[in-house]
Amino acid sequence: MSVQRRLLPNISALAAFEAVARLGSFTAAAQELDLTQGAVSRQISALEDQFGRRLFERDSRNVRLSTAGEIYAEAVRSALGQLRDAALGLMSNQHGGILNLAILPTFGTRWLMPMIPDFVENNPDITINFVTRVGRFDFARERLDAAIHYGLPDWPEADSTLLVRETVAPVVSPAFLADRAIATPADIGRLPLLHMATRPGAWTEWFEHQGLSAPTGPGMQFEQFGTAAQACMAGLGVALLPLLLIAGELQRGQLVPAPGQPMQSRSAYYLVVPHDKRGHPPVASFRDWLLGHVEKDPAVLAW
After folding, report:
1. CATH code for residues 97-164+267-300
2. Which of 61, 132, 202, 260 is most buried, by CB atoms within 10 Å?
């Protein structure tokens, strides 16, 4: 067998290996692949013979990956995923391409998603697959082409293009405001504060922006702005929220500003593209379209 052939195993054997590695069972893998257990076992044995390495440790009850098998399983899982994505692209979109995009939960839902129909209309040959990610991740491992990220433009080995800067302000429900004496920013410090898990220092930064010391003490914590906004509307406390993401609630009067000056956050929203995806046509089309929307939308720029 040539070296090249030895390094390119049979795809059926790789599928069997991935299934056993993921399910931890030859029987379960055989059922998933619609094969006999013996056929799966032969596929794994062929791989082990081909590489001269044991991929699984077997005993009478269990099967588990060897050290070499664990390393190989991660690579095989990624490679098979890329092949599936490529096949899906060929079948679903013969003339365009696929964009695998990571978005932030609330920002993606409230800011980006209402604009997506325009992108689809103007780019009918591009299919976008959305996943939710908060914080940094490995683009290659996650098989993602781009991300909308909140933070600083310092993502390693990637280009960060500014989309929107963020202004935050304290808000409350109308009933909460009517029932309490809230006349100055200092009064807010004596009220229940709602905190974002992803912005642990936000309230401290805001109080310093008002020339005040931040209060100490616990408060309710939320993972997503949408949940925090709902809690605020329910009268549970004062929330420090991005004005861009609660424009609807403010316009409908469900939330109202509390005393104090709005503050521009140090971080902002960026479109992040890894260097190896710069030339990917769907990425370039999406970036140009998105920046065009940002530039011509006065409501976005106003924030």
Report:
1. 3.40.190.10
2. 260
